[in-house]
Amino acid sequence: MPMSATILYMSMSLDGFITGPNDGPGNAMGDGGMALHGWLWANAKPDDDPMVAVSKLTGANKKIVDKFMASGAVVAGRGTYEGAHGWDGDHHGGAPMFIFTTHDRPDWAKDWPLAHFSDDLAAIMRDAKAAAGDRDVMVHGAGLVQEALRLGLLDEIVIHLTPMLLGAGRSLFEEIGEKIDLERVQVIEGEGGVTHLHYRVKR
Amino acid sequence: MPMSATILYMSMSLDGFITGPNDGPGNAMGDGGMALHGWLWANAKPDDDPMVAVSKLTGANKKIVDKFMASGAVVAGRGTYEGAHGWDGDHHGGAPMFIFTTHDRPDWAKDWPLAHFSDDLAAIMRDAKAAAGDRDVMVHGAGLVQEALRLGLLDEIVIHLTPMLLGAGRSLFEEIGEKIDLERVQVIEGEGGVTHLHYRVKR
């Protein structure tokens, strides 16, 4: 039986940023940071809703999106969850969402039962894997990456490497403080210059 | 006639480091940073001299090394030059070396006429291109990358992306402070998990 894997999916610039500077409430991707997600709009109109934009993807980019949209559960940090306004209650297809936070459920999310909140990342990953069954767990957001790596809770990493130096912003990895070896699983050249780098975390 | 291009070649971890922590005189690659160059030793013995190790490369890794060893001139920062002890006077095949530094020529390099020293990076790049003729200019080292990018002096970037998170060290790009778009030229999967990412800097 295939094991469920926890897989980080993040769009990152060549200089390691996943947002522009000044990210925060109301500016989830930071100044200019939406350029990191430009590849998702490769075949879409600029004002298309994200889900509409993604539905127009083709080729390698479509395959990658199809892969993470087939995840059986989603794990995210609070900043990511709030920045996306909780994906309006459903990230995709009714997959349960596990949010890593020390805060209680926000009021605006009180009628969204798919979302669960906890400050115990090990429990979150365990529950997400259980909920996902034989499907994978999509992990998203920088706030929990370092802790997930330190605790050995991340199985795989998929970086959507965007063709730009962003110049400033939030670093995905910052200083983890220890060397972690990776195994290259696959490299896929997407349209628009994005390169999908898929690694397995070695233990 | 093909134009000579200035091309940065650097081995970098997925978290953006080009040395381990505590790099400096006597510890050019920082603590544990030699792992970034592991791909150059893919077919060599651990104690092989770098030039011997490189001569044993095969496949994609050999092609990349052959490409930068065919450069008509080398541009490097002082830290890189001193860390490599001036490549004992000759980086490869008698190519002139242009070192970006505010210091005078070191005493130990006084009999090595291939090396030139200047604190004017624009002049260095111009002289290096002139010396290279129709061949390319290999650029190496982090100390000058940010200034080269800011001044529009870097034409292309080749990252040897090594399959690891190094956890700490010297960042290649740090915060350049402005967004710079890149055009993906080529992606090559090398043996041992290294991925060679070749970009053109857009102006």
Task: Describe this entry's structure for a reader.
2 copies of one chain form a homodimer. Helix content of chain A is 20%, strand content 28%. Chain A is built from 5 helices and 11 strands; from the N terminus they run E-E-H-H-E-H-E-E-H-E-H-E-E-E-E-E. Chain A is an alpha/beta fold. The radius of gyration of chain A is 16 Å and the shape is globular. In chain A, helix 3 links the parallel strand 3 and strand 4 (97-100). The mean pLDDT of chain A is 94. In chain A, the strands form 2 sheets. An 8-stranded mixed sheet of chain A has the order 5-4-3-6-1-7-11-10, sandwiched between helices. Chain A has a two-stranded antiparallel sheet with strand order 2-9. The first copy, chain A, starts with 5 loop residues before the first strand and ends with a strand. Chain A has helices at residues 50-55, 59-69, 78-83, 121-132, 145-150, and strands at residues 6-13, 17-19, 73-77, 97-100, 115-118, 137-140, 156-162, 164-165, 170-171, 180-189, 195-201. At the A-B interface, strand 7, strand 8, strand 10 and strand 11 of A face strand 7, strand 8, strand 10 and strand 11 of B. Strand 8 of chain A pairs antiparallel with strand 10 of chain B.
Please name the defining characteristics of this protein.
homodimer, 203 residues, alpha/beta, 8-stranded mixed beta sheet, two-stranded antiparallel sheet, 20% helix
